[in-house]
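Q: Convert this sequence to structure tokens.
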Amino acid sequence: MPERFINMGYWEIVSRQMSIVTKSQQERFKESKITVVGCGGIGGSAIEMLARMGIGKLTVIDKDYFDFSNLNRQLFSSTDVLREDKAKVVKDKLRLINPYIEVEAKIEEINENNISELKDSDIIIDALDNLVTRVILSRFAKENNIPLIHGAINGTLGQMTVFDKESTKSYEELFAIPSKGKELTDDVKKEIKSLTYGVPPVIGPVPNIIGNLQAFEAFKYITDIGTITRAPKLLSYDLLNLNSFNIVEL
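A:
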């Protein structure tokens, strides 16, 4: 099929948003590469929205597989893909949502040895639930001047912010992580791990809202529309109190 007809399908998908952005802005989004670390509740919703908004390239990373406990919130989970690798399932399902995206799936956990694979990302989305990995990721993004869009949840609470060269605080500074300014030795990693206590509670809409917000923040960042929620500003909410949606400065 001639390329002009293939491209028409892409522009049909994004047609409803073209009164919000210009064609050149959308083309910038189409030519960008975003890496999402984590394909669960937060990551899954961010990935799906990025695909529907017309991102050009996606790298999705997750070491885990789907199980029954994921069904309450993780959009790419279903009973027919239980025990299958999350990253692979996401890649396969994205072909049905938007066949014009280039998707790379990595079934691995990010660490100091493989994080350099993310160097060609235009934006990294943090959809992690592991503090040590989050510190490694935030340091890498800062060192390589790659915008990092952070999102996290606990129960009915959610938060999101962006770390980039204009941020006045790093991830470790903003959230007072004890590893700040220290080499990530085994003892320091153990200290970081001590900040978490078991598996946090979660209810479906909370991570999906955060993932959608992260995806739109990436869209804003690349297309240069709207105002970026940049650290030390933090968007936070509690779904049990809708009046709590707010941007605070830490």
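The longest helix spans residues 205-223.
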